[in-house]
Amino acid sequence: MLDDPFGEITVTTDKSGENRYRKVSYPIRYGTYHEVAYGSYVFQFNLNGEIKHILCRKSCAMEPTEWLKRTVGNDWVFYASGGYNGAFAAVGEYYVPCFRYTSNSIMGGKPFRQGILEASETALADARIHLAGIPDMNTRPGFKSFRDSVLAATPQALQAKAARLHGLLDGRISVLPPDARHVDYDVIPLNISKGCLYNCRFCTVKTGRGFSRVSHREIGEQIKGLKDIYGKDLVNYNALFLGQHDALNAGMDTLTSAALTAFDAFGFQSSTMKEPRLFLFGSVGSLLNADDRLFEAMERLPFSTFINIGLESADQATLDHIGKPILKHDIEDAFTRMADINRSCRNLEITANFLYGDTLPEGHMPTCLDLVQRTYPRPCSRGAVYFSPYGKSAEKRPRVAHFKILKNKCHLPVFLYIIQRL
Ligand code: SF4
């Protein structure tokens, strides 16, 4: 790591962040990255020279403890800190991610309305002009290649790269599993299936297509394309998301071979980040139909695996109301199976989602609570339950304060599900 001060700009290349994801109440960075300090701002770039984080040291609408993060899908996410009493209890993290697109969140306010991103982007454009003007004399060889990569990663180039990612994946990843918060949503997405089994009426993230498995050949092509897109920054990743909405239904052969091939191809063994993780969604049907051997095989994968199952409700009137074509007893059986698997597996955890909203039928919350309390009469730390705020508009969504009452009634880790896309 070397500092290059050039008047009002200071460049530090190859900074080392943490090599394990942690939950802390202060700004933290992971892996290896480059940094430019300019005026009030600090800009952090990934190893491709692409902007990833923006912080403000003083005199701007962002607090020094907050930051902006750009995802590989080219979305800016604002990380809000403080002022949100009990953020950790509500979402399991000290920071609340806030988006510019419509999500289900009931926390974090609307920070983008304060022009935070526009001011940061203007400062970044200024910093790039200053970087371009630094004469090559007296700079290190590493500096020049860093500067060239930053200058090449224009806003247009970043947008084009995100479009390439979405083209490769046959569209955006409309939703990441809630468990991806454990790696700050820094996952490499690989689709091994498309669509889903139910196409529920209420769901805003579905593709609308029926379920289908992706061929081994197509999975190989995606891996090749993803390696190219993540480029030099691949070394900072160790988490895989197997998409789309029901990868568990893809079957043992497709699932385990894709996970192992990706582990090798993406070099997770030698990533700067330790403790590889695998995330995927499953459904009630895929969980109930899966053979025990599938979970045994997943236990042997070189990842800690998190499977998230969308249950939505344990109340038949609510299931009918939201248009989820499934029966209450299937939900109960799926929740019982999740608990059994969580008790017997150490390297694999299954988490569940229920909806959370005042406008759902009145039987919804009592039946969900009853199911959770009956299945877990004693405290248990594995198998988190996420409640996804439900309501057609932000105004119709429930209050965080009510959620905390609900949380205290469960013997499991219980959090709000914030829907984040990629
Ligand atoms: S909730 Fe899950 S199963 Fe239902 S439509 Fe959405 S993605 Fe498909």
Structural write-up:
With about 425 residues, the chain is an alpha/beta fold. It folds into two domains: about 1-155, no CATH class; about 170-415, Alpha-Beta Horseshoe (pyruvate-formate lyase- activating enzyme). It contains twelve helices and 17 strands. The strands form three sheets. Strands 1-2-3-4-5-6-7-8 form an eight-stranded antiparallel β-sheet, covered by helices on one side. A seven-stranded parallel β-sheet has the order 9-12-13-14-15-16-17. Strand 4 (about 40-45) and strand 5 (about 50-55) form a beta hairpin. Helix 4 (about 155-170) runs antiparallel to helix 5 and helix 5 packs parallel to helix 6 (about 250-265). The longest helix has 17 residues, at about 115-130. Bound molecules: iron/sulfur cluster. Iron/sulfur cluster binds near residues 196, 205, 245 and 283. Iron/sulfur cluster (SF4) binds near residues 198 and 245.
Tell me what the CATH architecture of the largest domain is: Alpha-Beta Horseshoe
In what range is the share of β-strand residues? 15-25%
CATH topology tier name of the largest domain: pyruvate-formate lyase- activating enzyme
CATH class category of the largest domain: Alpha Beta
Biggest pleated sheet? 8 strands, antiparallel
- Total count of domains: 2
Q: Helix content range of the residues, please?
A: 25-40%
Order of helices and strands: EEEEEEEHEHHHEEEHEHEHHEHHEHEHE
Shape: globular
Structural class: alpha/beta
Q: Give the strand line-up of the largest sheet.
A: 1-2-3-4-5-6-7-8
